[in-house]
């Protein structure tokens, strides 16, 4: 659809102010079945499907507030924005609630499942997640994508970031909060930056964790950045006496495995993570790439990677295949694929450079699987609205704290540097040997709380980050060397 001039977009903002106050009731939230519940206050806010046409259908947003520990809290809550794209904020926060406790001492935690995720008009579809890794042919991927579109409950065009930030502002107004302290992780950093761009007057602070800069279209660099991260892991193993002793030549083993599985998959009997029943899994290059990519995200799983690669190299594929099975099921439960596609096919794929280095991507362990699949999906997926200036870096004096890990396989520290080029009050903290997402690492949560309290990125004492624990490499399934 044609883009409206920005002045007309801004003229629509007062519509949310006419909404009735949002009523909240006692509830419990959690990260999913089997997880402990967290006391909260929950409610539902009705929003137009298309904010520019309030009479053309509506959706309901799921909202939860975890009250501050202080009985007289600050008037500006902390707003966690989840990644994916496709994960709900309630589920994300519930999984990492402990890391947000320093922030909750003086401030409410405001959770809004972004439209299309969680309990907010979830946009999911029964597509085998292997499509995302390119297991199927392009033709079959397109066929499944068309089936996904037909099964969705709402028009996917209205599930973009540009629409979602208007929802968040409507929630703020309905609850009467003066301003917001935004915390975004991964894709959530994109949401945080765009809210701050569109609503600077009600953005008090912004914390970006695993930064997606507006200038970068996600997709083409995923494989090359992950390859870089994996090579760095193996280089660190070679410099570690215990790891080098137990897994000599691990980088060569990895390359050999990549080549072998591209030739043909292996059949592996693995227990189902939920039932324990043995299942026969065809474990090929796509499954291998999926397992390795997610293992490289966090220090705890990075510590396992040399061991699991070594075991596969000597013929024991069960641990690596089981890891793939667990993570693929967890992602299928956490991510709403329809919302994921709505974001990628509006905000990323249309901006891929025609000069993409496909040979370089093909040479990575991930290969062209994911990129080809995304391009196939987006060839039939309808694009939604995107605001003017959406792909420009955030500017101004809003306090911004940027967090990166130097071992991050998808959003490296240079991405944070790109996002910070026009920020007047910003600081970038980089965790050594840390992966994707820093909020739960060492003293990071206390640093974020200090930043939010001060509403300034100046004078943060980040010396404690140097003492952050990094999981040693596992030399066998008993754990690291003593």
Explain this structure to me?
- The protein is an alpha/beta fold.
- Helices cover 38% and strands 16% of the residues.
- It has a five-stranded parallel β-sheet, with helices on both faces. A four-stranded antiparallel β-sheet has the order 1-2-3-5.
- Helix 4 crosses helix 16, helix 5 packs across helix 6 and helix 14 crosses helix 16.
- The longest helix is centred in the middle third of the chain and has 20 residues.
- The N terminus is likely disordered.
Structural class based on helices, strands and sheet pairing = alpha/beta
Major beta-sheet overview: 5 strands, parallel
* Tally of helical segments: 18
Gross geometry: globular
Strand order of the largest sheet: 4-6-7-10-11
Helix proportion range: 25-40%
**β-strand amount:** 15-25%
What's the overall average pLDDT, rounded?
A: 91
Task: Flag low-confidence runs.
Answer: 1-18, 129-134
Instruction: Compute the CA-based radius of gyration.
Output: 22 Å
Q: Would you report the number of β strands? A: 13
Termini Cα gap: 61 Å
Could you give the topology of this structure?
Elements: H1 6-11, E1 25-29, E2 38-48, E3 58-66, E4 78-81, H2 89-95, H3 101-104, E5 109-112, H4 138-151, H5 161-175, E6 180-185, H6 187-198, E7 203-209, H7 220-239, H8 241-246, H9 250-263, E8 266-271, E9 278-283, H10 285-295, H11 299-302, H12 305-313, H13 318-334, H14 337-347, H15 358-362, H16 369-378, E10 400-405, H17 413-419, E11 426-431, H18 444-454, E12 474-476, E13 479-480
Parallel strand pairs: 4-6, 6-7, 7-10, 10-11
Antiparallel strand pairs: 1-2, 2-3, 3-5, 8-9, 12-13
Helix pairs in contact: 4-16, 5-6, 9-12, 10-13, 14-16
């Amino acid at each position: 659809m044609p883009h409206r001039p920005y002045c007309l977009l801004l003229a629509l903002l007062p519509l949310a102010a006419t909404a009735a106050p949002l009523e909240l009731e006692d509830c419990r939230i959690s990260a999913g079945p089997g997880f402990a519940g967290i006391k909260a206050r929950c409610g539902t806010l009705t929003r137009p499907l298309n904010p520019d046409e309030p009479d053309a259908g509506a959706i309901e947003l799921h909202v939860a507030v975890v009250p501050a520990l202080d009985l007289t809290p600050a008037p500006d809550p902390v707003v966690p924005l989840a990644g994916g794209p496709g994960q709900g904020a309630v589920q994300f926060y519930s999984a990492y609630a402990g890391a947000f406790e320093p922030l909750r001492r003086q401030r409410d935690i405001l959770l809004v499942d972004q439209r299309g995720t969680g309990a907010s008009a979830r946009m999911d579809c029964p597509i085998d997640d292997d499509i995302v890794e390119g297991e199927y042919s392009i033709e079959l991927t397109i066929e499944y994508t068309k089936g996904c579109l037909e099964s969705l409950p709402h028009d996917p065009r209205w599930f973009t970031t540009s629409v979602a930030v208007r929802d968040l502002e409507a929630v703020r107004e309905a609850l009467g909060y003066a301003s917001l302290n935004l915390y975004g992780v991964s894709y959530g950093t994109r949401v945080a930056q765009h809210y701050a761009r569109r609503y600077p007057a009600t953005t008090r602070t912004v914390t970006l964790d695993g930064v997606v800069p507006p200038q970068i279209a996600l997709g083409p660099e995923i494989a090359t950045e992950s390859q870089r991260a994996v090579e760095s892991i193996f280089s660190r193993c070679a410099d570690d006496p215990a790891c080098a002793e137990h897994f000599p030549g691990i980088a060569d083993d990895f390359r050999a495995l990549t080549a072998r599985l591209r030739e043909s998959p292996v059949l592996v009997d693995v227990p189902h993570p939920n039932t324990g029943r043995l299942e026969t899994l065809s474990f090929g290059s796509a499954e291998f790439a999926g397992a390795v990519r997610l293992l490289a995200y966090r220090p705890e799983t990075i510590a396992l990677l040399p061991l699991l690669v070594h075991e596969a190299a000597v013929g024991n594929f069960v641990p690596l295949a089981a890891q793939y099975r667990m993570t693929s099921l967890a992602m299928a439960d956490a991510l709403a694929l329809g919302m994921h596609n709505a974001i990628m096919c509006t905000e990323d794929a249309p901006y891929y450079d025609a000069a993409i280095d496909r040979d370089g991507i093909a040479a990575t362990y991930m290969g062209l699987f994911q990129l080809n699949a995304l391009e196939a999906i987006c060839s039939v997926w309808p694009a939604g609205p995107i605001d003017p200036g959406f792909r420009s870096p955030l500017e101004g004096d809003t306090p911004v704290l940027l967090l990166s890990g130097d071992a991050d396989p998808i959003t490296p520290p240079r991405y944070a540097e790109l996002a910070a080029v026009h920020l007047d009050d910003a600081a970038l903290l980089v965790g050594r040997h840390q992966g994707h997402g820093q909020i739960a690492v060492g003293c990071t949560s206390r640093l974020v709380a200090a930043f939010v309290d001060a509403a300034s990125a100046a004078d943060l004492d980040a010396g404690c980050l140097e003492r952050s624990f990094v999981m040693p490499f596992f030399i066998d399934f008993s754990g690291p060397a003593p």
